[in-house]
Amino acid sequence: MNHPSLRTLIDASEGVVKADRIIKGGQLVNVCTGEIYPADVAITGDRVAATGDVSAYEGPDTEFVDASGKYLTPGLIDGHLHLECSKLSVTMFADAAVRFGTTSVVSGLDQFLVVAGPEGVREALREADASPMKIFWGAPFKTPYTLPETTVGFRFGPEDHAEAQSGADCFGVWETVAEFVLNRDEKVLQALELAHRNRLPIFGCAPMAAQTTINALSAAGVRLDHESYTAEEALEKLRAGMSLLIRESSVAHFMNENVRTITEFGAQSRRVGLCTDDMHVADIIREGHLDKLVRMAIKAGVKPVEAIQMATLNCAEMYRIDHLVGSITPGRYADVLIVDSPESFVVERVFSRGELVAEGGRTVKAPQAPERTAALSPAFQVAPVSTDGIGVAAEGSSADVLVVEMDRTVPFVRKGVPMTLPVEGGTVRADLAQDALYVTVSERYGKNDGATVTAMINGFGLRSGAIASSAAPDDNNIICVGADRADMALAINHLSKAGGGQIVVDGGEIKEFLPLPVAGIVADITPEEMADAEDRLEAAARALGCELPSAFGYLIFLEITAIPEYAVTDLGVVNYHSQDVVDILRPVITQSVAAAN
Questions:
Q1: Cβ neighbours of 265 (radius 10 Å)
Q2: What confidence tens digit (pLDDT) does each residue in 4-36 have?
Q3: Which of 118, 259, 271, 529 lies most in the core, judged by the most C-beta atoms within 10 Å?
Q4: How confident is the model at residue 408 (pLDDT cuts 50, 70, 90)?
Q5: Phi, psi (rounded to 5 degrees) for 152
Q6: Is the bond into 148 cis (omega within 30 degrees of 0)?
Q7: Are 230 and 257 in contact (CB under 8 A)?
């Protein structure tokens, strides 16, 4: 990011250097005071020079922007975003987000990190600097996030934190998963202690947390959390001194639940922010990004100015970046939105770093991705998969199996259910009548011989074929669910050979394929192209029988071990509570979501 000298900022804000641009005639939504009043905005370079009566800042070369009858708000900040889960590169995601007023995001770029290491992260940050959207990077608390540790391209530990936290690009410690704190993981504690010494904020991740867990996280210095499944849980986190990020993603819809902390329980909104976490591009194109969340909060009963604060200053303050973004005040980046009104909050024009970057829901300049280096183009090293290589070995004619079951009522949650399944040729077979399908994970980095493991899963509803993805946090190994082993083998092998993507296969034919050549997880295609591809993939999955809200949305998160009750990784089926790999042929079912953590 550009950091001009103090002398430059002072000269601009005193009017010694005249403004490059002045936005005139608008009503300023001052998120620092909660006021709305007439004020012009003087911009010099990429920073705000002054607001109010800025006639003293006018020069012979000053450009004037007419905002008469409109309202001026700061650019929006997404408080927690896994940008890579959009499957768009940084450049292309910026093109989608800024048109709706999102000019800054907080991200760990953790998926780039586990695939391509620190150089992959640095490349993504350089890409952001050339885009109209800023990335405030938090160094992931540890990679991989999985318990037990799965196979990834790069492990990030205390030594890496020592280097990363000393850099100007690091703004905190990202996604500190509660279990690692509760386990007193030595490497994680070292990273957190280093953050305390460096006075960097610690970002948390504690879904369905019990009171003792919340207390422990607060004591460990976790400053904020984005994972609350109920308003009551969210309120307890606020009461314990943590800030709250209300998440509304493409699959996890928690705005209307968690905003009750303000509208029903009476909590003050000033320590509440907004985030999307994971977004399908098709949803952004159709419905908006952070601007949508502002409108949702207002509709739920939050006062308009407070909702705007939640998407701007509140986020900036909880991350300690309010000296750079979050308000239209001197010295901050000139990220200014011209909106129709605070109540309806339709973004009409977007200025980022002082430049007009979007107008009327379109970006001003077509996005141009940079040339890709070897850092973000690692080869897949998956051992070729055959039909016979997929399956769970068992004796006899049937077996009692622990089957991972999708919870249709709580997003992402997977329970366990015992099923009696047929055994043929020494292998447990899928049973479509019980919706018991195969699920595989293929290790892509060649560190575990590129092996493929198999388990059984319920809830996807496929009657034939297979779906697969190489974009799959937290390790981005290839995850595949299928009713037919030959189709699964075709899907896995195609993704490996192509260098990543998402695919639907049926009857030995590739029905849909989305290449993801950048790190095997994102692509340099336009948001509209990605939205079309997402729609086609989901339609193809529905044609196979999938009735989940999002086939690929649920598929890609199966490897995350921080979500109850079971995950599927390249090690096998992992029990969230015991944090170890279970023998699915000796099913001991754990189902205690309500008492998790």
A1: 12
A2: 899 999 999 999 999 999 999 999 999 999 999
A3: 259
A4: confident
A5: -135, 170
A6: yes
A7: yes
Lowest pLDDT segment from 2-16, 209-223, 348-362: 2-16
Separation CA 18–CA 14 (nearest Å) = 9
3-state helix, strand, coil in the chain (%, to 5): 30, 30, 40
Q: Which of 371, 262, 245, 419 is nearest to 315 (CA)?
A: 245
Give dist(CA 83, CA 111) in Å, integer: 9
**Alpha carbon distances (Å) from 226 to 143, 223, 264, 381:** 19, 11, 20, 34
Which H, E and C letters describe 381-403, residue by residue? CCCCCCHHHCCEECCCCEEEEEE
Q: Where are the alpha helices (DSSP H) in 313-364?
A: 313-318
**Phi-psi category of residue 122: left, alpha or beta, with phi > 0 → left and psi -120 to 50 → alpha:** alpha
pLDDT class for 124, splitting at 50, 70, 90?
A: very high
pLDDT at residue 546 tops 90: yes
| pLDDT confidence tier of residue 593, bands split at 50, 70 and 90 | very low
| Helix boundaries (H) for 165-301 | 178-182, 186-197, 211-219, 231-239, 255-258, 260-263, 281-287, 290-299
Angle among Cα 537, 543, 546 to the nearest 5 degrees reads 80
Of 521, 515, 171, the closest CA to residue 316 belongs to 171
* 596 pLDDT above the threshold of 70: no
Hey, is 330 helix, strand or coil? coil
> In a 10 Å sphere around its CB, with 0-12 CB exposed, 13-18 middle and 19+ buried, how is residue 389 labelled?
middle
- What phi and psi values does residue 484 have, to the nearest 5 degrees? -130, 125
Q: Give the contacts of 252 (CB within 8 A, at least 6 positions apart).
A: 277, 278, 411, 412
Rounded to 5°, angle at Cα 345 from 339 and 350? 40
Q: What letter would DSSP give residue 364?
A: S
pTM beyond 0.85: the answer is: yes
- pLDDT tens across 392-403, in order? 999 999 999 999
Nearest to 521 by CA among 559, 475, 568: 475
Q: Which amino acid does the sequence have at 239?
A: R
* Cα 397 from Cα 402, distance rounded (Å): 17
Q: Smallest Cα–Cα separation from 456: which of 432, 436, 486?
A: 436
